[in-house]
Amino acid sequence: LAKTTQPISMDSYEGQEVNITCSHNNIATNDYITWYQQFPSQGPRFIIQGYKTKVTNEVASLFIPADRKSSTLSLPRVSLSDTAVYYCLVSTSGTYKYIFGTGTRLKVLA
Amino acid sequence: DSGVTQTPKHLITATGQRVTLRCSPRSGDLSVYWYQQSLDQGLQFLIHYYNGEERAKGNILERFSAQQFPDLHSELNLSSLELGDSALYFCASSVGDLTDTQYFGPGTRLTVL
Fold first, then answer.
1. pLDDT tens digit string along B70-87?
2. What is the Cα–Cα distance from A36 to A4, expressed in whole angstroms?
3. Interchain contact A83–B (C-beta under 8 A)
4. What pairs with residue A89 in β-bridges?
5. DSSP state, residue B26
6. Percent of chain A surpassing pLDDT 90
7. Do the strands A53-56 and A4-5 form a parallel or antiparallel pair, or are they unpaired?
8. What is the rounded average pLDDT of the residues B5-30?
9. Contact check, Cβ <8 Å, B104/A97
10. Most buried among B46, B47, B52, B102, by the most CB within 10 A?
11. d(C-alpha A82, C-alpha A79), whole Å
12. Sequence-ordered list of residues with C-beta below 8 angstroms from that of B37, at least 6 positions apart, any chain
């Protein structure tokens, strides 16, 4: 099963681009990668999902290199309200298991 | 609001007791997932049901059990509770499984004293 690790914390300033990486060395061919945002005492909220290469939506981009051993969530221009914990989730095919990363606490400063 | 509802919001009980957590998925979703979030273990997948049938088990203790009913709501039963079971328990739902986006409920905070 894929084991997922993330940096514990990051600081950024408003208006900057933030990139958060998730390492999943044992990812299998058909596993999917999803990123969630979580505020204190709330459930995780979906940001973006991908399988390979690059995916972009209205709030973020997801970059997945060819070897798929990592993925990077890119938040283009962060604001104070983006202060939260960000998790990657690997959905493993075949076994239908769901493995969350360790979470990255992002603090956006004014 | 994700459309997933969980009750109760908070639950305080004593060691050795049994509790039931309830989850109602979004309308049209067939899959329900349960997760446990604690400070030392992070978010841990417990179990997944699809259209009433168990699809996969994760790190679920034998003291815990779950089921999904014909109306697709789900219950997570926790028995012989221990102090270490204190955590946030989240339910999520999706249309299908694996590749479908999971939408999370607000969670139930369980405190075992």
1. 999 999 999 999 999 999
2. 14
3. no
4. A34, A100
5. P
6. 70
7. unpaired
8. 97
9. no
10. B102
11. 5
12. B43, B44, B87, B88, B89, B90, B107
CB atoms within 10 A of CB A9: 11
Q: Is there a contact between A9 and A32 (Cβ–Cβ < 8 Å)?
A: no
Report the phi/psi class of residue A81: left, alpha or beta, with left for phi > 0 and alpha for psi in -120 to 50.
alpha
Strands A61-64 and A53-56 come out as antiparallel
pLDDT given for residue B77 in this prediction? 98
Residue B46 has pLDDT above 90, yes or no: yes
Q: Mark B79-93 as b/e (b = at least 16 C-beta within 10 Å).
A: eebeeebbbbbbbbb
Q: Cβ distance B2 to B105 under 8 Å?
A: yes
Amino acid in the structure at residue A59? V
Report the alpha-carbon distance of residue A6 to residue B47 in Å, rounded.
Answer: 24
Nearest residue in B to A44, CA atom? B104
Residues 6 or more apart in contact with residue B101 via CB below 8 angstroms? A34, A46, A49, B94
Burial bucket for residue B18 (CB in 10 Å: 0-12, 13-18, 19+): exposed
Phi, psi of A80 (to 5 degrees): -55, -35
C-beta separation of B38 from A82 below 8 A: no
For an interface test with A, which of B9, B50, B98, B103 has the most A Cβ atoms less than 10 Å from its Cβ? B98
